[in-house]
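Q: What would this complex look like in 3D?
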Amino acid sequence: MKPAIKHALMVAFTFFVLSIVATLLSAMLFMVYMLCTHVVSGQSITSFDSVLFVEGMLSSAPFVMLASAMFMILYMIRHPYTHWLPLTVYAVLYTVAWLLFIPAVFSLENHFDEQGIVSNVEYGHLSPDYFRNSDGLVFYYSQVQKDNLANGVCIDLTDSYGKVYSFSNVRLPGSNGDFIDSLVKSAVGMSPVMSAIMKCLENLADVARLSILGGYLRWITFATIGLALMSVVGLRRVSRWRLVNVAFVVAFSVFIFVFNVFCYTSSPISGAVSFMNGYLSKVFPMANPFAFLCNIVLAFALGLTGLLIDIIHGPEEDPEGGTL
Amino acid sequence: MKRVLLTLGIYAVFVFGFCIGGTFIYGNAPRLLPGMEGHYIFLRGLSWFFKLLPAITLSGFTVGCSIHWQKNIRDSRKRFSQAMLRRYRNILFISIGLVFILMLNNEIFLPSTSAKIKRLESEPGELNHAIDTATMLLQQDRPVLAWQYAMKATSIAPADPIAAHVLKRSIDAVELQRDRERHLENASYRTAIQAEKPMHTLDESYSVSELVRLAKAEVESENWFMAHYWANLAVEACEGTDTNFPQATEIASLAWNKLNRPSPYKNKEVNDYFNKKREAYNAFYSGDSLKAYYIFHSLAGEHTVDPDVIRFEELAREDVEGQYFFYDEVESIPQLANSHDIYFTISTPNSGRMVFFIKHAMSMKKDGGLVRYLDDVTIVQFTRSGDFIRSVYAPAAKVIFQSVSAFDRTTRIEKGLQDEWKNVPLLILQSVDRKTEGLMSKPEYNYEEAGIPEEYMKKCGMRRFESSATTSAAPRVAWKGMVPEQNILVLPMPYEDFALITDASLGPTSMSLSALNDFINKSTRYGFASELFTENFVCRILYPLYMLALFIIAATMGWNYRIEDSKILFRFIWLLLIPIFSALVFLILEFLMYFFNIVNFVIVSGFHTSALMIAFVVYLLLFTVASIVFASRKM
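A: Here is my prediction, written as structure tokens for the whole assembly.
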């Protein structure tokens, strides 16, 4: 088989396999995490919940596809082969992902929401006979009844007096989507760094859904993120040392992503962004012209860089022949 | 492979320098004791470095491998080549070394640095608290306690003039008090002891001749126990040359001999009863009042008609209940309270659950074992179904160990003591101050619930239950008077567990691996979630294996993205790559560690006792796959 075709196929293979595996893994993680929010100490995590799993798949698929460009580029760095075929396959696949797959996932999500399919995992009651420390107040429930009434003891560790308050017939707070058992939370809860990252992802997903609802044109302006990410391929030959290229590609991808998140959601640079948007919306009648412009400019710059590098350094051959 | 280590070493030193430099530039130390700023800032930089160490080593290792494999790779044209296996062996050795360092980092370097930083941060507050308390205690004329707090203050800040001044004042006050005590000692001592033992007091109020007469009467009716008791009291009451002395001693020894006959009765059951009674009396006579009480108590349960047993049971109970410890027993310990905020629960077979909270605890070697002094002890008792019975508060308590063999079978079952426990804790809730008259602190029993303060209820989202027509709270049982109020508690748990629980109250992360291992099986018994502790244990034990797998994967990456052309000279500008790379690795590691955490939790939650084995297999599999992938690399 001609090496060009082989490389092109491998790029496609990377895209599909990685996307599917990553989506499945993320869905698994999502399902397990949600199950942990329901579980109480002394109770085993119940087995597979298909509704949560599907929910996990639908939530993570857009992000996986967003990141797939980066992974395809990493493959191309590993097996350098300058030819129009693999690059075209790359571009086509990624564009299709943005213009077709991601909107499809969102509409599927909508469909499920409308159907009202909810998982049947119940929020149980906190198990008695455990000490639970939350912010210096240690609670011990000697008895928790069905209607969430509890007897027990509250130990005050916040001051130096060590007061112990016994109580009975206190109604415990209901679940609010967060972990029901603070003990489980302390084992499995996310660190502040991770929660911040997750919050960013959620916010961006919300913005994306809004964009789709606003019509296809609006979605395309949002999808310029994809364009910018796609153009990172221009950096794949920045240095002779491939690890440097990896670092550049990943760093730039992360930067573009973070920059867009900051533009579209409330962030440290929101003030500047809205100022620019106010200024630019006279010319560009869209929701966030600043982000749109920045992405286009970035895409152009990176694409041009890549083109120049290819012209200066000439085509590359892959000594390993294209296999993983 | 020297180049890999060299790269890594230089990089680590560079980051270390960066951390130290950065922390000094950042400055911004919180309020500290004078002269501690430099130390604190340095420690802070050190803790930054330790937190970054995994990312540093992983990224440095990857880069080092990548650089090293620029040359000499012609020998790996096929997969699983000999050269590749040789490389694998090399990186495995290096990885094991690095993983070992990371494990030390996790278990020792990072926790101890964080602990030191925390201590430095809390020292000013503690110093002020110690000085204020010492001053207050001096004003309350409690110099011994004041002295202890002053000693604590000076140990925190030896150079502080105020602390030294308070210490001097306390020492002077203690001297004064000791002088005073020497004059008053005998009088107040007796008053304190006699305050609460009515039966003893009554018996001891008889004159010597009355006691001898009572003894003689018992001799005639051949009640040797009572005869010895009265005679002994008479002997004790005699002061030197009392005319009744020889008679009293004679009766006492006669009775004693009669008591110590082996098997005086033909009937086996009566004999057993007699032996038991004698054992109990011996214990009573030799001062082991607890043993005596429990044996008499069980005898009284079986045979209620024996007036001796009833009488001795009451006498022994008075002895037991009258037990106290002297509040200033702790005089010789310069340092106060080495553990704080200890909580646990015990369930007893008949009395439901008891929740213990100990604000401060101090342990001391005494009488061949560990004795603990506790401050601010609260015990809340619940029925088996979880209804409130009462709460007990003692400002001071002492825990000594009591051997299980002191209790007989029935008592052991009644109290829920297992035979395999060697010693159980005995909690003494009553304490006496040597100089004041009467008892200083007795446990306070409270049959009303304290109720959670409103602000805490709001903070936690709780609401008080409003009973309506259809639903109402369970009727309250009036427990007062139904459960005996005791000053001595026998805790149904092995004495050694006390130390484990002290550790556990701080959380699994601060426990040592061996303590964690011991505690896991017992945790639920004391009210701690075993999943939490097991998960922590599994994470810490398998961290090296997981990191090893990650290092192999990192090496694979290093190979995959190495410099292709072996003729190219190394450019130092490439080294700027490493920090960017490390930042990325740091973020990725956050996710990987979280993944590790949650997977372990699921395994623990699903498999409980065999969780460690299952998790080990999982990560071994990961390591094997990573190794195979690496060995399959080719040029």
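A: To summarize the key features: DSSP finds ten helices and four strands in chain A. The longest strand of chain A covers residues 137-144.
Q: Very helpful, thank you.
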